[in-house]
Amino acid sequence: MRILLWHVHGSWTTGFVQGGHEYLLPVLPGRGADGRGRARTWEWPESAIEMTPDDLAAADIDAVLIQRPQELELTKEWTGRRPGRDLPAIYVEHNAPQGRIAEMRHPVADREDMTLVHVTHFNDLFWDAGSTPTEVIEHGVPDPGYRYTGELAEAAVAINEPVRRGRATGTDLLPRLNHDVPLCLFGMGVAELGGVEDLPQGRLHDEMARRRAYLHPMRWTSLGLSLIEAMLLGMPVVALATTEAVEAVPPAAGTISTKVDVLAAALRELIADPDLALATGKEARRVACDRFALRRFLDDWDRLLTEVAG
């Protein structure tokens, strides 16, 4: 199949483009949000193809994956085809809903001409999709391999744009947790907090795995792929018991809690006991390899694409 999708979430797309299809990625001068094209810091196969809006107007397309509301109109404008009506369409919802619980209405609610795919069961539970058909296809992550050394007695944290996203990503908790345990912050837009700016994925994984533990302070996100990647690296994890993290991290793989004091104590214990950190990280990797396997993810998507596009 030839599948049109925008490069919105790099880590998720890195897994998705590993399948057996051609992936058409809009590209614009300047590579802004609506036309990033291929990734610069991830390794993508040649089947991930950059296309300008003019290219898309004449392209054979079997299905479109919508990930943001504005892509409904962009698809129509750039291809001349209406998603769900002239072109088979799937809406992929990456994010947890915002707002009052009774008002969490999805942008494609009551659209029976497309399927809404949630990346977590938490999202499916909280979003109101009305009569739109919904499915859950959990994340699948390319395995970076076991890289854990834990040689540095500190905890890694990966947050993109921590200042702008603030409380949602638990940025305000970092000073409290940094009081007893040194933290090393990775991600886009972290330099102003003294962190390590965006690194190529392979280098990022190596640097994270040198830290003794991984801290996931997210209050309100879907399920951070950085958490799964840390588990695959063999890192023990400490996370807020919010959204889907309560399902992703069993007790043997780390500590989850809504009590900041409990999280701080868990970090101190892991930093002080390398053997415990090593054993916990190995269990975290086993869990992640089983639940978030790339092959399962791609098989789930192949099934749905076949149902939607034929």
What does the model show?
By secondary structure, the protein is of the alpha/beta class. 34% of the residues lie in helices and 17% in strands. It folds into 2 domains: 2-140 and 294-309, Rossmann fold; 152-291, Rossmann fold (3-Layer(aba) Sandwich), CATH 3.40.50.2000. It contains 12 helices and 12 strands. The strands form 2 sheets. The chain has a 7-stranded parallel sheet with strand order 3-2-1-4-5-6-7. A 5-stranded parallel sheet has the order 9-8-10-11-12, with helices on both faces. It is globular, with a radius of gyration of 20 Å.
Q: What's the number of domains? A: 2
What's the CATH C level of the largest domain? Alpha Beta
Q: How much of the sequence is in beta strands?
A: 15-25%
**CATH architecture of the largest domain, please?**
3-Layer(aba) Sandwich
Distance between the termini: 10 Å
Radius of gyration: 20 Å
Topology readout:
Blueprint: E1 2-5, H1 10-16, E2 22-26, E3 48-51, H2 53-57, E4 63-66, H3 70-79, E5 89-93, E6 115-118, H4 121-126, E7 134-136, E8 152-158, H5 162-165, H6 174-177, E9 183-186, H7 201-209, E10 211-216, H8 225-233, E11 237-240, H9 245-248, E12 254-257, H10 260-272, H11 274-291, H12 294-309
Helix pairs in contact: 8-11, 10-11
